[in-house]
Amino acid sequence: MIRSIYSLDTTLLETLYRRFQNCLFPLTLALLYSISFGWALPSLGYYLDDWPHIFYQKQGGSEAINLFHAYDGRPLLGWFYIFSSDLLGFDPTYRQIFALILRYLVVIIFWLVFRLIWQNLRWQVDAIALLFSVYPIFAQQAVSVAFSSHWAAFLCLMLSFYTMLLALKYEKIKFVLITISILFNILQYTLSEYFVAVDLFRFLLIYYYAKNNIFSKDTTQKKIVWVFRYYFPYLLVVVGFVVWRLFLLELPTTDRIAPVYLQELLSAPAYALQNLINWVVRDFFLNFIICWYKTFTVEMFDFQSRFGLALLGLTLILILIIVLFLSLRHRYTNQASLSWAKQGLMIGFLFTLFAPLPAWVTGRSSSMFVGPMSDRFGLPAMFGVSVLMIALIEILFRRPSYQILITAIFIGLATGWQARNTNDFRWSWIFQQRFFHQLTIRIPYLLPNSLISSEQEFLPKVGGYPLSYMLNLLYANDNPDNLKYYYVNLSKEYQSRIDDFAKGEVVFRQRWQSRFIGDTTAGVVVEYRPEDGTCLWIVDESVSHNPFLPEITRRALLASDLSRIIPDSHHRLANEIFGQPTIDSWCEIYQKASLAAQLKDWDQVIQLWDLSKPYHGQINASTELKPFIEAYLRKGNLTQSLLLSQQLNQGVRGGAASYLCSIWANALNTNLYPEAANYLKEWNCEFLEGK
After folding, report:
1. Which DSSP helix (H) or strand (E) runs through 27?
2. Do 404 and 130 meet the contact criterion of CB atoms below 8 Å apart?
3. 452 pLDDT higher than 90
4. Reported pTM
């Protein structure tokens, strides 16, 4: 492939290259992001910490947003979310586009920064920037609200670097450019503290820019003085921020991102140093090597999936395009010496090694799992590790064709992984939307101070407390200080005392400025496994024999109080946030029938069964036939009840005799017991003995 490029007509290639060379990189980057993220943007929603952000923005306004971020340890951050809410509203697609634009601009400015440092390089700088754009450290791009501020901070830092280097290049306006650079740097610190270490090492960028473009034969001492003179204003900004953050800042609560490591260093220095060495080594290898393992897995070769086949084909095509692009860059630029690679090793190694420093100071690291978003602590390391990898490839593989091919393979693998990861988020949003719409059909309104509990978290990439904020948005809680609804993970919080939960005890939770006070018996228990294609189940004691219920859920059923469900409500689902309701599905019929059964509107349940015939093929759990069996029993139609009961029984491995007996026992009119005995002989129902 690469040799064939060199054999093409030189005049034609050179003409095309010179005409389009300035837009080749932005277009290639756009292609990468189209494959990685762009294709799914309209199908992505909100995840994890997006939900509390959206709740406070939507229900509390500017005051709640500012207080939320003060409780979160970043009291200056509120302005960004007030601005983004006013600009974008609450449609998740706009938030996804905004976050991706920020990331795209970060990469563009990153690319321009290194084009200034290494002005004679082309393909290497392009390769560094492309690798940086999809580097497989950070897997939370779709968490668009919570992490848009991180990308905005990264962008401000890159703009600060870029205008700083332009100031070195353009002597006449250097003070204007330095002022702009410092302002961008200060703005960065209103958004995040994540990039303190990257900022602290900016003197390396000043030094290597000057070494490649300014320094002549000055002494080492003069070079150090020159670099420090330009670096000093930025050092003051860093020191000023650190002093303010550590010693002057007053927060309304305990500092969530307090420098606990510094306290540990003073109280137990030997133990603290051991921890630091552990974090440094583990994080370095995680960010440099281990994170690549997930890009080359058997999931790449899922030939039974149309998505998997399409992505594999796109990845191979992308690798060829990257090879073509980098080969053209190499062909029409001068051969660079390996001195840049030595500089790249220094920049890459130091920035990769120390970039996670802000996380370490707070006692956390990307290699120490503290939640599904732990990889965010490795986000600053992306700046250096992409430089380190390309510099190593240049040193280890001397032939340009090998260098370009290996680089293209890495970029292709990372892009493919990003696309698979994006698809996981897409499915999460599908599952969430199914949950939203089914829940609001089954529970039009839920009395305040209610718990919703389940055996385990059932929505991937959401989490427990974010689900609580989602529930408060669903039922339009307009008081951000008092949460009306809260989610409880029974396995996580009540594994060893589920009986205490069922009997009743006070529940108190506080997140940021919000509190919830309730009782374990004031709420509903749910069971939902969307990956199995089943509907959302709102359960109580009447389904205690359901063979599909986990044991923890079965023991918690006493706490489920369906009387807290209010059938009439003026509440309307906020489609801007939650999307258009799913219609014409079995689960919609099932939820309406379950609510009607709770209200003992048996005619409505039977009418819904008649309407459900086109959707019977969507039934993935035969136990969902319960409300219809019960309705026909209540109306005295034993034949239809038996037919549905047999269908339920056949759908359960090993049968569901005890469940069917409990349904018939609860719903059967006593006058029909003798006739029912003839129907139920095969299940040996105890309640018929002696009848």
Report:
1. helix 10-36
2. no
3. yes
4. 0.94
Q: Which residues contact 167 (CB under 8 A, 6 or more apart)?
A: 173, 174, 175, 177, 178, 181, 230
CB of 50 closer than 8 Å to CB of 56: no
Per-residue pLDDT at 524 exceeds 90 = yes
Report the Cα–Cα distance between both ends of the chain, in Å, rounded. 84
Number of CB atoms found within 10 A of residue 30's CB: 13
In this prediction, residue 476 carries a pLDDT of 83
What HEC string does 68-123 produce? Answer: HHHHCCCCCCHHHHHHHHHHHCCCHHHHHHHHHHHHHHHHHHHHHHHHHHCCCCCH
- Specify burial of residue 690 (Cβ count, 10 A radius: 0-12, 13-18, 19+): exposed
Q: What is the DSSP string of 474-489?
A: HTT---TTB-SEEEEE
Cβ atoms 264, 272 nearer than 8 A:
yes
Q: Cα(593)–Cα(612) distance, rounded to whole angstroms?
A: 10
Helix (H) or strand (E) holding 566: strand 565-566
The closest alpha carbon to 598, from 642, 657, 538, belongs to: 538
Q: What is the pLDDT of residues 650-674, one digit of tens each?
A: 999 988 999 999 999 888 876 777 7
Q: Which helix (H) or strand (E) holds 511?
A: strand 506-511
Q: Which residue has the higher pLDDT, 336 or 242?
A: 242
With 0-12 CB in 10 A as exposed, 13-18 as middle and 19+ as buried, what is 222? exposed
Which residue, chain included where needed, has tokens 């609804």?
Answer: 485
Q: Which letter does DSSP use for residue 39 in this model? A: G
The string of pLDDT tens digits covering residues 3-48 is 555 455 556 656 666 667 778 899 999 999 999 999 999 999 999 9
**Mean pLDDT of all residues in 72-101:** 96
Please indicate whether residue 302 or residue 36 has the higher confidence score (pLDDT): 36
Closest CA to 641 of 628, 652, 653: 628
Bridge partner residues of 515 (DSSP): 482, 510
- Kindly list the distances between the CA atom of residue 262 and the CA atoms of 240, 265, 374, 476, in Å, as whole numbers in the listed order: 18, 5, 21, 42
Strands 523-527 and 450-454: parallel
Go through the domains of the chain in sequence order and give each one's CATH number. 2-426 (no CATH), 445-566 (no CATH), 586-691 (1.25.40)
Q: What does the chain come to in residues?
A: 691
Reported as a pLDDT band with limits 50, 70 and 90, residue 570 is: low
C-alpha dihedral (335, 338, 341, 343), degrees to nearest 10: -110
Whether the predicted pLDDT of 447 surpasses 90: yes
Mean pLDDT, the chain, as a whole number? 91
